[in-house]
Every structure is written in structure tokens, then in C-alpha cells.
Amino acid sequence: MIVVHHLNDSRSQRILWLLEELGVPYELKRYQRDATTRLAPPELVAVHPLGKSPVITDDGRTIHESGAIIDYIIRRHGGGRLAPPPGSDAYETYNQWLHYAEGSAMLPLMLFMYVMRLGEAGAPLQPRIESEIANHLGFVNAALAGRDWLVGEALTGADIQMSFVGEVTGAFGRLDAYPAIKAWVERFQARPAYRKALETGGAYSFAR
Ligand SMILES: N[C@@H](CCC(=O)N[C@@H](CS)C(=O)NCC(=O)O)C(=O)O
């Protein structure tokens, strides 16, 4: 049985969503962020030395990093669903999105969040951060223009992995500048499995 080590209000929400989409049973272990620092509690370090979420355990394996977790769950428990056939061109596009979300797209958004806390001291960094945000969100918006999902005609793990990018964009109040991302966020957040995962995961400040 898959165990999801779930930190409240975090990226692990998308793992719950994935499991609800697939209808794969799982056990949820809850961890609460520190109210002041928003850091994970030390108990999470006992699961994985990084002490971050998401992390899952399954069949004697511990897997961290959400892209790797989504890939693992879909390959081992998906029964061919939520990913294009391996070896197809669509699979290469799908795999790119799985890596791109945390490898590139999240970086300027995280920098924006941290540098904001510096106030005036962070001002020299802001133009570069803003141009990178515009570069990445412009790219994602163009990829979604005229289509419902990132790969092919249906939801895949690529949308689930990229969902946090769209949600953080919304949390920063920037979705109106990116109408295709905005429509996609509204589309995936309306899915029954997404709503079910929200009920299970608890308060999530990135949902509308
Ligand atoms: N790139 C990693 C990021 C993991 C990550 O930083 N998770 C955050 C929650 S969104 C976390 O655990 N924060 C608590 C902490 O850093 O103590 C992934 O996608 O899994």
C-alpha cells in the first residue's frame, strides 16, 4: 500500500489528486507545518533526510521529489492511464513537463517569494526575477493556448505535476495576465478527483 507523507498546504496535494484520479488506495500520514516558519516538522526527517514533502513509501521503497513520485505511481500503479505510451513522441513531451515543473518553472516563482521578504534590499534582483517569470509563464501560456491539457487530448501526469506552477501563479495574483493558464487551472480544479483530494488533504491555500 502506498503511504503518502502529506504536509499540509503543500506540493503533496498533487500526489493526493493523482491517486484520486487513478482510484488507487493509499494511506495518508499527516504532517503539520510550523505556524511561524512554515517549515515541516522534524518527524518528516525520519521518513527522508531532506524532511520535505511530498515523499511516499511503497513496497519497501521511499521516493521523494514530486516529479519522480508522479512518474513512479503512473508507471507502477496507473495501468496505462494518465501517460502517453512509452516510446511515443507524446511521451517525450510528457516527460519534459515532468522535469520542467520543478527543474525550471518553479525557480523564478520561489525566488520571487523569498526576495519579496527582503523588502527594499531585494529590489536589485527583481527585474531579473520578473523577466524570468514572464519568460516561463509566457511559455506555459503559449503551450496551453487553444488546448485543454498539456499533452494530447486528456489529462496526464504532466498536468498534475505542472499544476502547482499554475496554482502559485494564482496565489501571486497573476493569472489574469495568462488566460490559457487561468482556464487550465479552473479546468483541473473543477475535476471531481481534485475536489476529493482537497477534502482529504485539508486546507490548501492554492485552491480557488
Ligand atoms: N522540488 C520538491 C520540493 C519539495 C518541497 O520543497 N516541499 C515543500 C512543501 S511545498 C516542503 O516540504 N517545505 C517544508 C520545508 O522545507 O521544511 C518537490 O517537488 O517534491
In short:
The chain has seven helices and four strands. With 208 residues, the protein is an alpha+beta fold. The chain is globular, with a radius of gyration of 17 Å.
Question: Can you give a write-up of this model?
Answer:
The structure is a single chain. A four-stranded mixed β-sheet has the order 2-1-3-4, with helices on one face. The chain has seven helices and four strands; from the N terminus they run E-H-E-E-E-H-H-H-H-H-H. The chain has helices at residues 13-22, 66-77, 89-116, 126-144, 157-171, 179-189, 192-201; strands at residues 2-7, 26-31, 55-58, 61-64. By secondary structure, it is an alpha+beta fold. 50% of the residues lie in helices and 10% in strands. Residues 7, 10-11, 39-40, 51-54, 65-66, 102 line the site of glutathione (GSH).
